[in-house]
Amino acid sequence: MIAGTNRGGGAAGLHPALRVGTAEEADRLWALRTRCVRELCSAAYPPEVIAPWAASPPPAQYAGLIAQGGCVVAEDAAGQLLGYGILDTAGNEIDALFVDPDCGGRGIGQVLMQALQALADPARPLVLSASLNAVPFYQRCGFQALREESYPHPSGIALASVRMQRP
Q1: pLDDT tens digits, the chain, 167 residues: what are they?
Q2: How far apart are CA 101 and CA 103, in angstroms?
Q3: Residue 113: partners with Cβ closer than 8 Å, 6 or more residues away
Q4: Cβ atoms < 10 Å from Cβ of 147
Q5: Residue 4: which of 74, 70, 84, 75 has the closest Cα?
Q6: 156/167 Cα distance (integer angstroms)
Q7: Does domain 17-122 have CATH number 3.40.190.10?
Q8: What are the residue ranges spanned by the domains of the chain?
Q9: Which of 93, 104, 157 is nearest to 133 (CA)?
Q10: Residue 166: helix, strand or coil by DSSP?
Q11: CA-based angle 44:5:70, to the nearest 5?
């Protein structure tokens, strides 16, 4: 499920450096994901959902998914992590898109989305399951809501989400 997008804010755009993510940095990426869940998703989900969601460890397949080559990392000139996205190429599905909450509204999410779309199979629809707080961002990126769903999170909670597709 894709949860963390930026908060908005209209600040001047950054021009992050993009590169392919590696399995060795899975912990660094997961830490940003956890911060995004705590700081950004809390506007759309109650504390009893946020706590186990944020506390959950990376799934066993996380590093492997990154290693498949569909992970794009955005960094500033000093190497500071600004955000990342992961495309599961087998399913043509965006598995993750997270932007540092302090960098919201600067176009980093848009840049990451464009990079993920460039990796996707253009002959198939691009799909994702969006957290409730992220739906407007994905709509601005051309995704359409297919249905509301309950995402069975590995922590045992059911996360309300929206299945989306970009034709």
Answers
A1: 444 444 343 334 567 999 999 999 999 999 999 999 999 999 999 999 999 999 999 988 899 999 998 999 999 999 999 999 999 999 999 999 999 999 988 999 999 999 999 999 999 999 999 999 999 999 999 999 999 999 888 888 999 999 999 98
A2: 5
A3: 85, 94, 97, 141
A4: 8
A5: 84
A6: 32
A7: no
A8: 17-122
A9: 104
A10: strand
A11: 130
| Among the listed residues 90, 97, 148, the one whose alpha carbon sits nearest the alpha carbon of residue 124 | 90
Residue type, 40: L
Distance CA 156, CA 133 (A): 21
- For residue 156, what is the DSSP state? S
Token pair recorded at residue 127: 């799909």
> Scanning the structure block, which residue is given the tokens 């759309």?
44
